[in-house]
Design brief:
With about 400 residues, the chain is of the alpha/beta class. The protein has two domains: about 1-215, P-loop containing nucleotide triphosphate hydrolases (Rossmann fold); about 220-380, P-loop containing nucleotide triphosphate hydrolases (Rossmann fold, 3-Layer(aba) Sandwich), CATH 3.40.50. The protein is built from 16 helices and 16 strands. It has a seven-stranded parallel beta sheet, with helices on both faces. It binds adenosine-5'-diphosphate and magnesium ion (MG).
Amino acid sequence: MLEVTPITEEKLGFHSFQISRKTLNSIKRMGFEKPTEIQKKAIPIVLEGKDLVAQAQTGTGKTAAFGIPIVEKVNPKGRKIQALVLVPTRELAIQVTKEIKDIGREKRIFALAVYGGKSIKHQIDFLKKGKDVVIVGTPGRIKDLIERKVLDLSNVKTFVLDEADRMLDMGFIEDIEFIFSQTPVEKQTLLFSATIPKAILRLAEKFLKDNYEVIRIKPEEVTVDRIRQKAYRVDSGKEFDILTEILEENEGRKSIIFTETKKGADDLSKKLRNKGFNADAIHGDYSQAKREKVLRDFRRNRIDILVATDVAARGLDIKGVDVVYNYSLPRDVESYVHRIGRTGRAGKEGLAISIISTLEDRLFSIIKRRTKANIELINLSDKPVETLERRSFSKDGQRKRRFLR
Ligand code: ADP
Ligand code: MG
């Protein structure tokens, strides 16, 4: 009988890369069946040793896109730091380290997270043991450790800037330049980012070899399509009442609520607790210990509702978030996409609910147009919708606003 060879999972899966059996086993154990778009494109290039700028939306598996090749390249017994990953926040340092450790489980790769807000002495002790071949850290702490002469980067073969756009936003450029100068000239440099503004390309021109590659995964190919999006349009001042109603309907579902400010996050989580909801807040003013505790509680389902600011939540991978709420709309489209990207990760369907006041009509229409998203609008206000606002200039140069229904 003729045997038809179907395209097996093996061919579509991680097996098509030149990676070791051990690493394949570890990946399998993590539950990854096939590579994501960015992984398909980036892994072969990184394995080849080329420099790379890679852009893909949050939640598309960028960590493993550099984590898998790093694990493949490093010598676990090398007793020297061979790969350095810079990340913008402490939480990301912990998260990325964990993922690299998971990928490197069978190869017995030691990786260490270093970041501010935690005892530097402890981190120095670990470094002195010399077991860690991969270091993941925030620029400030890495710089500090270099200056204390406890971090030797002279054997770094791979240098990664993760969430490069975010690191630039946070003003880390000088620290990054300093750290870069402490690594050998001959190395591979990788820039991963959710967006590629001009500043990132300038950075690439400066840091990367001339023949560097660029991969861009178009946003609309990835995230938001998988996410059901709804918006409740309410009169300004009614947001809290509507939010609690919707939260009641969605009781027991793991949720993140985004607010614009730290104070907004604190206030809202307090008000929710007063109403009997199991909520807590996270933002940049909290101590490291408190942030870690809140995140742990949320991950372990001790808290149902996490109220967060953009900065605190950016890049965080929290599994199984059912609903993302925008308590008000973010000021820019990128943030909207990032926020709702917290749900519906890695193939799961998610739900995003925005509470928009009538004052945000214009912002809403911009977000809707730019994301080309199918957002279901539930209008709870009697106020007319400003579906279109045109700005025009009258002859005397005065800007006039015209609202059209
Ligand atoms: P990004 O850095 O692009 O925001 P992450 O690397 O944090 O995304 O990945 C998002 C989530 O998807 C993580 O939980 C990660 O473990 C998971 N993931 C990554 N790659 C795969 C894959 N190939 N299959 C299934 N899950 C994956
Ligand atoms: Mg990431």
